[in-house]
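Reviewer 2 asked us to include a model.

Predict the structure of this chain.
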Amino acid sequence: MPALKQSLSFFDVMNLVIGAIVGADIYIAAAFGAGFLGPASILAWLVAGVMAIIIALSFAECSSIIPRTGGPYAYAKEAFGDFVGFLVGWSLIIAEWSAIAVFPLAFVAYLAYFYPNMPLFLQVIIKILFVLLLTVINLLGVRNAGRVNDVLTILKIAPILVFTFAAIIFFIVHPSVLAANFTPFLPLGLGNFGSALVLIFWAYIGFELVTIPSDEIINAKKTIPLALGVGMSLITVFYMVTNFLVVGSVNWTVLSQSSAPLGLAGFAIMGAFGALLLSVGALFSISGSDEADILGSARIPYAMAGDGLLPHMFAKIHPKYGTPYISLIVQNTITLIAAIFGTIEQLIILSVFGILFCYMVTCFAVFPLKKKFGGGIKLPRFIPILGIIISIYMITQTQINQILIGGILILIGIPVYIKFSPQKELNKVRNEIKYERGIFSRSIRYREKFIAHFLRRVRDLLGRI
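Predicted model (structure tokens):
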């Protein structure tokens, strides 16, 4: 097998990090902390960003040791065997599918700006059409999905940029509004800091799906941790600036009750035009993010089926379109049901619970992987240790009933493993994943997403000047 070409630069990897994380989350998550902390929720955005950077660095270390996709599933499998690998992959499926189910709910929430008293039956119909359309787009192939996302990219970043500049100018002219909305800064104290942190942390999730093999990165030992650190630092700054402006625009008591916080902030700064602009931007951003995430998440059961840990039907590729149609159909059917019967907060907490389990195991995996394979980047040993502590702390900040539900869903995977683990591995699928070929290689390298696309265009423009 020919060696993979080292062609990804620092900027390429940083773009992938940013593009994987930033999408519709900011339209959804901006109000999460207000009900728990008031204006002080801005502190939770900073702490969550630092925590995510620490865990991402542990991923960087694992990815430099094992140059293959599969993310936490691959690391756990190599470090602790098939059973732990399966549980991590199963948890990752729960987390990603829960996250996908959030977007139809958010789409309906922002659509309510145009139809405030939307009846329940119409909300259900819209959710069905939303999921059905994105399913068809992804079934028709990565190229078609990519073209759709190209169009959505500018449409979803422009409203945020307009709001940012307008809000800065507004606060320069009316500083008293900013001061009033940030006073008092800690109206509820810090007792609910952990609960706010769990919800806000969801906005930083995504790097686990873009663990780039070190064989394709120029000077991987330096590039991977630097790109993750810089990329996620930029994301943290972006989130903090946006949320600072949102909280400064709307009183925290009003913001905490909103399922469309950017629409409220847009109205406060630019009136009806601002609310319209941000609401339309949210609809495009939510559609684009879910469209981009659907195929990436479908690769998890595809990889597990290739290892003989799930039914082989999940590894079936459509003969004409080259997409994992069974995996996509099963995934989107389940997420649609969750979107109809669940709430945004419930689904996000379930997603965070599942992903934190994956993060914790990945941080643990650093040590046996280094011992087993050696090599890789050399980061201080306290980084994965801190990652383990952070993951455990965050899990404990969810409510006991949420822990029970998340734990039961993970344990349901045990009989699935017992049933399907003796299945024969599919060498074609395993080789495709190992050597980064085929549909999943192309989808994971798809950079045209939110501010990563914008940064690339700015870089290219500056290069011509």
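Residues 23 and 289 are 5 Å apart (CA to CA). Residues 11-464 form a domain with the Amino acid/polyamine transporter I fold (CATH 1.20.1740.10). We have added this to the supplementary material.
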